[in-house]
C-alpha cells in the first residue's frame, strides 16, 4: 500500500492509497518534515483508525466516506439506481501522482459506478479536492449528495464560522465542538449573505495569530453545505459539497457529475489560514496584476435619476480628485425608472438617453477614466417587454410563480433561448461602448427555481453552471474586461465565482462602523485587492449614521478603493480633502494589494486594529480604530504583528491625528523601534473619539 506525503508552505498531507479502497487522509496539518518510506509506514500505522464498538474491523474514513465500512457518520455519496445500489463499495482503485496532485480513479463493479477523486496541495499550502461520479450502469442513477470529508485531529475544541444578513454580512460566530453534526446548509441558490464562508475547527486558544485552525470552504456559487461532525469514537471530520435539490441530478447511463472544489486551509491562527487563500488567489493567471483603479460608482450619487448634465458634472469632479474608473449603475436601460420594471430589457433607454450612452462615455474617456456599466443579467422584472414576450423564461415549478422579491423573478438561463438572448445583448453593449468593467448584480434568492425547459424540474445546479458558462464566454470574447460579483451586496462571495470575476462587492452597507467588521471578516477568504471598498456620503444610505470623512476614507483604505457619493454636493475644500485621500491610497496601494494581511489579537476594549505588511517586512500600514467609548482611559497599547523582529522601523501617522487628549510620542513622526518591540509592547492608542481611526505607517530604517 502506497503512502503519499505532500508538503508545501508549512503544511503536510499524508494520504493512504490502497488498491482496494478509496484514498484516506491520515494527516492534514503542520509540516512533518522529510519522511522516508519507513517513517511514513510507522506514521501511517499509528494514525490508522483502531477498532471501535461498531464493527469488528477498523473503520476507515476516506475522502468520500462509505457506510459499508461501518462508518456511522454522514456518508459521502448518497444515491441509487431505482432504489438499488444505495450503499456503494469502491474496491477497485488506480492512482496517479503528478507533482503535488493525486488522482484516484475508483470503480464499484456491482453498482456500476465510477468515481474519480482529485487532490491538490498548492504552493500556498492550501489543499483542495473534488470528485467526479460516473454512471456506468444501464439504468438511471439518482444522485442525492456527493460530499468530501477531511479529518482533523482531536485537538480542536471550537467551531468557528460566519453568518449575517443583507447589509451586515460575515458576522463571526463561535461555539463548542461537540459530538454530532454542525450543519450549515445554503438553499438560497447563491452563496448568501448568511453563508458559513469558511467553517473552522480550532483549538481553544484560537485567534488571528495564535492557536491552530483547520478550515473548509466550498467553492460553489449555488446551493451547498458545510458541516463538522464528531462521532462518539472521537473522530472529527470537516465536510462539504453541493446541496442538490430533489431529482436535480439523475445520471443517464454514461453520464457524469462533477462536484465543486472543496478547499481546506490549515494555519497556526486565523491569519495564517487566510494567507493560504490569499496566496492561492494571487497565484491565478488571471488575477489582477496592475494597480487597482480607484473608481466612482454612481448609485448612491444619483440612484435612478439619470440626467446627462448631472452625470457629466459628476465625471468632471471624479477626474479632478483622481478617480480612474467611472461606473454607471442601475437605471440606464429601457423602462428602468425605478426598481419595479425593466430588468431583462437590455437596451439603452432612449427617453433618458436619446443619443445613447455615447456622450457620457466619450466625456469619461476624455477625462482619462475607464468606463463601466451595471447589469443584473440573471433577473427579470414581470413588468418588462422580455417577460411579456417570454413568460416561460421565468424560473418556476408547478402551476405557480415564485413569490416576488424586489419586484423581480429569476431568468431561466438553462433555457438555451434565454441564455442566447442575454449573452447577445451583453456582448453587444460591451462591444458598442468598449466597456472596461461590469458590475454584475444578483439581487434575489432562488425560490422554487424550476426550469420550464425541463418540465419544472429543480434547476439551481444547472442555473449556476449556466451563469458560469455565460461569464466564461463573455470573458473569452473580452479578456481585458473586469467583472465585479455583486449579489445584493456581499451575497455571492466564494471561490467559484472568483474563478470568473475580478472583485466582489462586500456589502451594500458602506457605513464605516459596519464596514470595519465586514472587511475584517471578508478578509478571512479574500485578499484586499478583491474586495470593493468605497467611501460613501457623510450620512450612511443604509444605517442613517453620520461619520467624518477621515473615518470613512480610512476604513475603505485597505480594499479596492472607490467612492459612492454625489460629488456635485461637495465644496471645494471637501473635494480637496477627498482628493488627498485618493492620492494617499494610490501611493500605498501596491503594498496594500500585495502584502500580508494581519489582524490584531487582544487590542484594548473598544479598539480594533489590522494592517498589511510587505512580503519582505520592509514596510507596513496599520489602522487603529476606536469603535466605541472604552471603560478605561487612556485607551492602552496595540501590538503591531508581522514585522521582522531584528529590523528597526520608523513609525509615524499617515495622516494628521486628531487627538482628544495628549498625543502619543509616536505621532510626532520622530519615533523608531525594533520589530520585536512593536510586536511585543506595541504603540499607544491615540485618544480618539468613537468612530475615529488612525493609519500608522511603519518603514524599515535598518536591519
From TrEMBL:
SUPFAM superfamilies associated with the record: (Trans)glycosidases
EC numbers, comma separated: 3.2.1.22
Cited CDD domains: GH36
Keywords: Glycosidase, Hydrolase
InterPro entries per record: Aldolase_TIM, Alpga-gal_N_sf, Alpha-glycosidase_related, GH, Glyco_hydro_27/36_CS, Glyco_hydro_36, Glyco_hydro_36_N
Residue stretches making up the Glycosyl hydrolase family 36 N-terminal domain: 22-251
Pfam family, one: Glyco_hydro_36N
PROSITE patterns tied to this protein: ALPHA_GALACTOSIDASE
UniProt keyword Transferase, yes or no: no
Reaction(s) catalysed by this chain's protein: Hydrolysis of terminal, non-reducing alpha-D-galactose residues in alpha-D-galactosides, including galactose oligosaccharides, galactomannans and galactolipids
Protein name: alpha-galactosidase
Taxonomic lineage from the root: Bacteria, Bacillati, Actinomycetota, Actinomycetes, Streptosporangiales
